[in-house]
Design brief:
With about 220 residues, this protein is mostly helical. It has helices spanning about 1-15, 20-40, 45-65, 70-75, 80-85, 90-120, 125-150, 160-185, 190-220.
Length: about 220
């Protein structure tokens, strides 16, 4: 627990010193979502209908595009080698870094999502479910993305490789996020979809840090 809190606090302090990185993620999210009306037209009913998919896809891309530097900075300055050799379990360290990443990327996206919903004239009934779905989906995306970030560590154009590796694994998260919001908008129960998102998050919590730690050990050999 001491190692977990130490790594978490360190990464959060570093992120606060570089707020531009987090702001770029939110700006990409907003700009990506704002482009769709130019492609499909300004018709309000159509925009409200596609809003769940636009928000989910934009959030997923924003989280995944920010994962390249999850381990890269520590890898470049040698801190990653010290973390791998430390007596603390590497899986715990990975989980702390993923949590710090989510706090600085996924959490701001959740706060920015109502703005996008307002732009798309989404009914207010869907907002609570949208926030709940994103609160379950974005941590899963960060956990799954950590595997890709570890596998592509030190590779050229790592950001593109992360997308190619991780996007197929994130399809299920995307599907049930959109399905939960759509269900709330049409008056159906969103709880089954949220339960599946919760189950995906519970499955990723132990598996993703273990897989990421194994990839990091290979990268440091």
């Amino acid at each position: 627990m001491t190692a977990f809190l130490g790594v978490l606090g360190r990464d959060l302090r570093l992120a606060l010193r570089q707020l531009s990185d987090a702001s770029l993620v939110v700006m990409f999210f907003v700009l990506c979502a704002a482009l769709f009306p130019f492609a499909v037209g300004p018709e309000p009913n159509l925009l409200a209908r596609i809003a769940p998919g636009v928000i989910a896809v934009s959030a997923m891309l924003s989280v995944l595009l920010s994962l390249e530097r999850l381990f890269l900075a520590d890898y470049e300055d040698g801190n990653l080698e010290l973390l791998v050799l430390s007596p603390a379990p590497l899986e715990v360290i990975v989980l702390a870094k993923v949590l710090a990443h989510w706090c600085t990327t996924g959490l701001p996206l959740i706060f920015a999502a109502p703005l996008i919903a307002l732009l798309y004239d989404m009914p207010a009934d869907g907002l609570p479910v949208m926030l709940a779905a994103l609160a379950l989906a974005t941590p899963s995306l960060s956990l799954i993305g950590a595997i890709g970030a570890a596998l592509t560590l030190g590779a050229r154009r790592g950001g593109v490789l992360i997308l190619l590796l991780v996007l197929p694994l994130c399809i299920s998260v995307l599907i049930f996020t959109v399905a939960a919001i759509d269900a709330a908008l049409v008056g159906l129960a969103a709880k089954p979809h949220l339960s599946i998102l919760g189950a995906l998050l519970l499955a990723a919590l132990p598996l993703a840090p273990w897989a990421s730690a194994a990839a990091l050990r290979l990268a440091m050999e």
